[in-house]
Amino acid sequence: MLSHKVPLEDLGDSRRVRPTYASRGLATQIPRYEMPAESIGPREAYQVIHDELALDGNPALNLATFVTTWMDQEADQLMGETANKNAIDWDEYPQTVELQDRCVNMLARLYNSHDTHESVGCATVGSSEAIHLAGLAMKWRWRKQREAAGQPGDRPNIVMGANVQVCWEKFARYFDVEPRYVPLTNERFIIGVDEAMAMVDENTIGVVGILGSTYTGEYEPIEQLNEALDALCQKSDWDIPIHVDAASGGFVAPFLQPSLKWDFRLSRVRSINVSGHKYGLVYPGVGWVLWRDKSDLPSELIFQVDYLGGSHSNFGLNFSRGAAQIVAQYYNFIRLGFSGYKEVMSTLSEISKWLADRIDEIGPFDVLARGDDLPVVCFRLAENQPYSVFDFSEHLRERGWIIPAYKMAPDAQDVAVLRVVVREGLSYDLAEQLVDDLRAGVNHLQSQDAPSNASPVPTSRRSSRHSASRGGSGQHSPGEKKVRPVC
Ligand SMILES: Cc1ncc(COP(=O)(O)O)c(C=O)c1O
Is the CB of 125 under 6 A from ligand 1? Predict the structure, then answer.
């Protein structure tokens, strides 16, 4: 989120944070947007901030996010112990590097890296950074191929569904690649294979397949994309790779759908990203990017950095970053193992299917995704209800539930939905409570003269502190902001 300098004269009484406590240290006022001239004690500083943060939503009831909100206490402890380590200080913290290496190895094998391939990868801050790195590798690889063939290499494009997460739009804009979006339809909320192939040409750096769409949790047909792209490339001299955005599905499919081919078993899948902080079950921010073989990562992108007494190869958009999340990922790998992840994912999947059935029973809903791929339930309101999904989402907020409502990506924007991401922490008990609240919400809104407009809730109806649950602000239609599903 971009923060702006606030004109102090507009603030009036809000210029200061004014705690009201009997304690002397907390009787002073603290300027809100200027650095305080005087120090205060650590206990006081803690209390002020702790109190302000109580205004945030309750993470346990935040069913909008894919990101982990609960970890073992032992993981919390390890993260606390490593909060002062910079993951980039390889010489100083060689054991942290070793843990990253082990994580990359485990993931490469989980994603069926072939014995003959020397897979490479690294930790990132999240899937967005991972995607930017993978996108850059595709762009450089494509340009080198074009140059080698004596062809111009200045008009790269990338083909993906209109349902991609905003990080792909960013990649295209920041790195000057033409985005070619396969439009959705009112019946298809993921990429269409034929439609994608029709957009591919000699300037295509890659095709994106999403393992778990942010909008509905559905897996895109990656094996079919692979076959279609193979057929297309055989007819030409193109060699177009697939990148799999497995931000969420990378920690679900290997455990729940092991026979589904989406990973390095497919010849065109050259790189994969996954968010450690989503179903990898680590607090934010850690992501991973892996290349099938080191030949898929152009060597020009790798920097040899001499730093603090050693020389190391580095590929990343950031330099310094916390080591704690990498340590926590390794903790989860050895603590849960394959069977532990499988058990967690199976339970989440069961709960999402149970929830989808209950939502069917409540009545005025049409369930579009019922946890068959990601453990996500996505549903819309049946036609002719006197209220919209946006009213419903707002109403649930009054009970503390954070369940986002949004319109689908182009060209399925007539479809507005609600989405529940089932994560660790949403027990059957809580899910039962949620069902009761959904039912009560329907009864309440049906008994009101609620305005039935299928438009997003205007910003003014939400307090600014809830704005984190809103997506970007791309163009939509006049007077309306585009509401994206959150991660
Ligand atoms: C499919 C997909 N790709 C990429 C991202 C971005 O991930 P991150 O938040 O880890 O940067 C998300 C976030 O939800 C996502 O759902």
Answer: no
Instruction: Classify 309 in phi/psi space as left (phi over 0), alpha (psi -120 to 50) or beta.
Output: left
Ligand 1 within 6 A of CB of 216: no
Q: What are phi and psi of 216, to 5 degrees?
A: -130, -10
**One-letter amino acid of 206:** G
In short, whether 128's Cβ falls inside 6 Å of ligand 1 is: yes
Q: How far is the CA of 273 from the centre of ligand 1 (A)?
A: 9
Domains by residue range for the chain, with CATH: 8-54 (no CATH), 77-329 (3.40.640.10), 345-469 (3.90.1150.160)
| Among 201, 188, 194, residue whose Cα is nearest residue 158 | 201
275 within ligand 1 shell (Cβ under 6 A) = yes
* pLDDT tens per residue across all 487 residues of the chain: 788 888 888 888 777 887 777 676 677 788 999 999 989 999 989 999 999 999 998 888 899 999 999 999 999 999 999 999 999 888 889 999 999 999 999 999 999 999 999 999 999 999 999 999 999 999 999 999 999 999 999 999 999 999 999 999 999 999 999 999 999 999 999 999 999 999 999 999 999 999 999 999 999 999 999 999 999 999 998 999 999 999 999 999 999 999 999 999 999 999 999 999 999 999 999 999 999 999 999 999 999 887 666 777 889 999 999 999 999 999 999 999 999 999 999 999 999 999 999 999 998 999 999 999 999 999 999 988 899 999 999 999 999 999 999 999 999 999 999 999 999 989 999 999 999 999 999 999 998 765 554 444 333 333 333 333 323 333 333 334 566 787 7
DSSP-assigned letter for residue 302:
P
CB burial readout 41-71, b (16+ within 10 A) else e:
eeebeebbeeeeeeeebeeebbbbbbbbbeb
Tokens of 359: 């939502």
| Cβ-based neighbours of 225, under 8 Å, separated by 6 or more | 191, 193, 196, 207, 209, 242, 268
Closest C-alpha among 373, 369, 426 to residue 401 = 426
Nearest CA to ligand 1 atom 7: 127
Q: How far is CA 406 from the centre of its chain?
A: 16
Q: Rounded to the nearest whole angstrom, what is the distance from the C-alpha of residue 288 to the centroid of ligand 1?
A: 12
pTM of the model: 0.90
CB of 290 within 8 A of CB of 254?
Answer: no
If one counts every other C-beta atom within 10 angstroms of the C-beta of residue 183, the result is 15
| Ligand 1 center to 128 CA (angstroms) | 6
